[in-house]
Design goal:
Structural class: mainly alpha
Shape: elongated
Length: about 120
């Protein structure tokens, strides 16, 4: 029988989400401007300042929502499992949106530059 730890699941998802966020930050704020795909000027600093709490908060939310889903799937009454499942997934998607915020802003800048 497996020893399943909710804390281990949450920690793993948190670190994976933080790693994803760091990669998105590097691609969005270092690689794209160096290659010349975007030229945001002064907006880059504002985007970076906004993306730090969104990314870290998003990673925390992803870790918490995975623990929420796992914990309530085991303990919730049958009639509430769909609600808890929806809430957990919704939290994960909101966290992912926070992590991907820099990439979204860079894409908006890139496509606005094309037009």
């Amino acid at each position: 029988m497996n020893n399943f730890s909710f804390d281990e699941l949450q920690r793993k998802d948190l670190f994976i989400a933080l790693g994803l966020w760091l990669v998105v930050e590097l691609v969005s704020f270092v690689f794209f401007p160096i290659v010349g795909l975007i030229n945001p000027g002064d907006k880059l600093k504002a985007w970076f300042i906004i993306s730090v709490p969104l990314g870290v908060g998003g990673a925390i939310l992803i870790g918490a929502s995975s623990r929420f889903l796992a914990a309530f799937h085991e303990t919730a009454r049958k009639e509430y499992k769909r609600l808890y499942g929806f809430l957990g997934q919704f939290g994960g998607w909101i966290g992912l949106a926070g992590i991907l915020f820099p990439l979204f802003m860079v894409c908006v800048e890139f496509f606005s530059r094309l037009t």
